[in-house]
Structure formats: structure tokens, C-alpha cells
């Protein structure tokens, strides 16, 4: 199974496309929301039986982003509205059998999205024992992933914590309208710690690109909370690709 | 020369690595500094005779970033201290002969760097008529580039204008210490417009991650200007790869 180094080096690298999909879900362990992601159990060598990011070889007639979307739909039933390119991973030793360069896409999806699309697109996938959602920072899961997929997920989490505007993250994980309490849940999930609600509201008002709407959350509450919305940002078309 | 669509689609894609290198240079047209980049004239089909980004196929024993660095050194004599991954371009029709997926790296280099390294590493390259520096936004140059290299350069310029901290840009284009006037020249080059010095100083103090040093620019001036430095940022190792 293991090609020797010289042989391996001479062969053309395989080009693969993988995806990291984050969604917000309840976490019984902490009582807060946390970030979850879908993984697929490998049914072939290398790393047979281990969990891996959804992915596969570049489709000969598909763009990079369409390859990512098709594979994601086929393996997990998920159809996110957009995918963003995360990074290309190409170290020599990523796979024991052959050099693989993986171009990784990522997306944030709403909890209702992932349920709906999974149900609608491919209901039998819901019972597939080789597809499951995991907490994105579960140490046991991360330690046993195939290939360098642990590094990939940890880099995606780092990007989420350090680089992206929180207004945009909230918009993508929550939808068009959200309460400040929901935005706090997003922050708590991404940072993995509880935040003081009053301090958080004060800081958020001056920082994130979020603005009040005239709407309030409907429901049975005595005093329904106000809804906010994301005010948008400058995103290049290449950074948030629509799936064709 | 042109494979038909079906044939082309069946063949394995070629993996290439290209680089976009920006440097600040005097621009006689405007009297300000502007962004320049090195291009290499193609000596083979496709696009023979047209200018292109320095690049080549993935080295069988090299990482992605080392492939970028080796090719850059061999074609232009440039040895930047770091390279950052910009984006992977993989559309079907990028090359008329065969599908090519290009992973593009980029860097900002100091003017003295590019001269020194070119001289030291490979002095004959300085006389090579197939290597030259161009203004990064020269419409005539952009209109006649090989492949989709115009799109790549325009995306890199967009990233520079929209995404990166200016403190970091100044640090990379200017070095460890710089005056506020030099930082203004960087802004003017990136935005391609003259800025009011007094307004600029006021805004810069509150915005960019730049701090005063106790040093002043040496030279013959009556009142030498103060030197500033970049205060750093959170950069993931993957986002600024050192070349091995």
C-alpha cells in the first residue's frame, strides 16, 4: 500500500476538493450553543474506518466550487447557499499512498438549513451510519481524523475566531434577522466561553456591523426582543461563490 | 494546438503555482509612488510572446510555497522573505490546451529588497528582455496578459485595497521603521489617489496598528521626521509562509 518516496514523488499529484461546514447547535455538555460540522466515515484505504471531511477528486467537467458542492450534497445531503475558498493544502506527506493537493472550501449554515436540505435532498442520508455531525472542537474526534483534516478544521476555526466580521458570521449562522441574545450565542460558540449579557450588548453596539430593525421577535413573551440585521460588507465575488 | 472539449475534460488537470509580487516604485506619470509587479514573457504556446505572472508546474518534491519561491527566484531573481497564499484558480477554460489549476501566492516586497536580491542572486536576469516590472494597474498591460492573469492581478489588488491592515502593508513594503509620509505614499499607491497630508496623519493615528518609536529619520533635514513601526497582528502560520 505504501509507495516508496521516489515513486510517489514522480507521479502527478491528485487534485481533491474538500469542505468544512459549520453550523450552530445545542451543546448538552456546556448548555450553550457550539459549532458542529459534518464528517464522513471513510470506507476505503487509506484511513479506512476513520472520519474525514466530505470531499473527493476534482470533477473533470466541474469548477472547483461545483466539485465541492456536488460532493457535499452527495455525501451529506447538504446544499449551502454559498461556499468560500479556505485554503489549498499541498504538503508532500498528506496521504500515505499518493501526493494529494486539496483545495478546501468552507461555509457557515443555519441549523434549519441543514435539516431542511438534508431532508429534502436525500432523506436516506439521515440514516447513513457513515455520515454524522460532531462538535468542531471535540478533542477525541480531532485526534482521530483521516489525513491532515485536523489541521484543516483547526485552521478554519482559527479563521473564524480571528478574521471574519462577527456581523457576517451571525448573518450566515442565524439568517436575515436575529436578536442580540442570538448573536451572543454565536460569539459564545465561536470563542467557546460564556459572555456577560450586559457587557456584550454594550460592546456589540459600537463594534460589529449590525443595525437595529423596526421588528421584534414574535412569540409568547411579555416583552419581545428587538431584531437586528447585518449591514453588509465588501466581499469580492471570489470570496463567496454561488454554486451553479 | 486546441484539444477539443471532451478530450480536454478527460485528462488530469495540471497543477501550477504562480506568484504576484507587489513593490512600491516611483511613478513618473503621477509623481507619486505606485504598485509595480514583475512579469515574465512567455516563450512557448499558449500565449507565446505575451506577459504572464512568474509560475510553473508543481515541483514533484516541493511544497506549494517552495514551488512558488523556486520559480520566482529562477525567473525573476526575486527572493521575498515570505509568501502568502492568495487563491486557487481552477475554471475549466483558463488555458486553451489543457485544464490548469493554479494556486497563486503573493507577497509585498521592499524596493531595496527587489534590487538587492535580483543583483545578488542572478545578475544576468536584470538584462533579460523577457522579465520586466510593470505598473500593476496599467490598463494596456492588463489587457494583454496571458491566461486569466488579469483577473488574478485584479483580485490581488482588490484584496490589498479591502482586506489587509495598512500597518502590515506599510511594514512589508517599507521595512521595520517608516515615517508617516512614507505610509501616506503606500496608501496613495494602493488607492491610486493623492491624499491630504494633515487629514491623513489625523486619521492614521486612530486607525492603523502603527506606533511611534523614539527614533527619527537620519539625513540632512533641519527637522528630521519621526519613525514609526508596525505593532503586529494575529497571523496564522499558514497565512504567511516562510520559504524553506
Automatic annotation (TrEMBL), chains A, B:
<dbReference type="InterPro" id="IPR000086">
    <property type="entry name" value="NUDIX_hydrolase_dom"/>
</dbReference>
<dbReference type="Pfam" id="PF21906">
    <property type="entry name" value="WHD_NrtR"/>
</dbReference>
<protein>
    <submittedName>
        <fullName>ADP-ribose pyrophosphatase</fullName>
        <ecNumber>3.6.1.13</ecNumber>
    </submittedName>
</protein>
<feature type="region of interest" description="Disordered">
    <location>
        <begin position="215"/>
        <end position="244"/>
    </location>
</feature>
<dbReference type="InterPro" id="IPR015797">
    <property type="entry name" value="NUDIX_hydrolase-like_dom_sf"/>
</dbReference>
<feature type="compositionally biased region" description="Polar residues">
    <location>
        <begin position="231"/>
        <end position="244"/>
    </location>
</feature>
<dbReference type="InterPro" id="IPR036390">
    <property type="entry name" value="WH_DNA-bd_sf"/>
</dbReference>
<dbReference type="GO" id="GO:0047631">
    <property type="term" value="F:ADP-ribose diphosphatase activity"/>
</dbReference>
<feature type="domain" description="Nudix hydrolase">
    <location>
        <begin position="18"/>
        <end position="154"/>
    </location>
</feature>
<keyword id="KW-0378">Hydrolase</keyword>
<feature type="domain" description="NrtR DNA-binding winged helix">
    <location>
        <begin position="172"/>
        <end position="229"/>
    </location>
</feature>
<dbReference type="InterPro" id="IPR036388">
    <property type="entry name" value="WH-like_DNA-bd_sf"/>
</dbReference>
<dbReference type="Pfam" id="PF00293">
    <property type="entry name" value="NUDIX"/>
</dbReference>
<dbReference type="InterPro" id="IPR054105">
    <property type="entry name" value="WHD_NrtR"/>
</dbReference>
